[in-house]
Amino acid sequence: MKRKMVSCILVTILLLGGVLTFAGAGSGGTINVAVFDFDTKEAGVSKLGPRIADMITAYLSQNPDLNLVERAELDKVLSEMGLSMTGIVDQAKAVQVGHVVGAKILVTGRAFPVDGELVIVAKIIGTETTRVYGDVAKGSLSGKLISLINDIAVKVAKTIKDKGTELLPASEQEVDKVAIIQEKLKGKKLPRVAVKIEETHIGSRPIDPAAETEFIYLLRKCGFEVVDQSDEVLSNWAKAYLKDSGTELPELLQTVDIVLVGEAFSQFAARTGDLVSSKARVEVRAIDAHNSRILAIDRTTTTAVDLAEQIAAKTALQEGALDIAVSLIPEMVEKWQSELPEADSSQSDN
Known about the structure:
The protein has two domains: about 1-165, TolB, N-terminal domain (Rossmann fold, 3-Layer(aba) Sandwich); about 175-345, 3-Layer(aba) Sandwich (Rossmann fold), CATH 3.40.50. The N and C termini lie far apart (about 70 Å). Helix 2 packs across helix 5 and helix 7 (about 210-220) crosses helix 9. The longest helix has 30 residues, at about 310-340. It is α/β, with parallel strands linked by helices. It has helices at about 1-15, 50-60, 70-80, 90-100, 145-165, 175-185, 210-220, 230-245, 310-340, 340-345, and strands at about 30-35, 65-70, 105-115, 115-125, 130-140, 190-200, 225, 260-270, 275-290, 295-305. The strands form two sheets. Strands 2-1-3-4-5 form a five-stranded mixed β-sheet, sandwiched between helices. It contains ten helices and ten strands.
């Protein structure tokens, strides 16, 4: 029976060939997909869950743009979270698992008998967009179930092909976030800025401060004057401020207008074949250097995948800093400028 099922999978894949070209993977990298065993608790179909997942995995694995998360890795993560491979039908839990293993798309679902028929319902979930698409296949319980399982696998593969761009977030190529920041700053006077984001990669020392470097790059790209980061005074003050927000700025730093201070953490999340995923959290505050008032504050958590753990961590930190900067930089300038004398605030450095 098992040999017959494998033969049917291979024949159908060969016959349908072109169905697996992924519409959402034109940006140069593979997309991580996690396929969970389907929930099949009812009598008579209780052993079908892994078979449905295997069939869907067989179809999706033919697509070079998709990287399937290994079953062993899913089992490990689910075990650590106190969950089982079968029955991940709760969307919030599925997305949580997807984030840990670095999967951008999840496939889950259930199969159950109704009036002599077997109904298979699949959910395809985008972990970052929270978009959900569904597919249904049904047929007689007394018929050949392999054909029915094959049917749902084909439908899931086609949904991922057709809806890939909606399941995934817009790529950086599609959205120029630097241009967005520049547009929001038009006509505004720009403050002199200092930046210090303390960074830690749990388990090893960071090679260099990725989040801080990204902020400095963005600020300079948008026309800000950024003070030299080698200044030890700034570093010492930032460390003290993170422990006690009441710490006053030293006189040397009062030559700047705004100090961006924050913390960034990254750590290993999961390994999938040759790929490693890392998670990062970035928290940043924009402080008025003249009165220590917080002008803007934001935080975010991101995940990135690469062949090397350190590169994945740096990418996650960089993306987190970019996400924060889009809203934080314009907000801090707006609030800082609103406190300037009217003659100063009417001048533009752009």
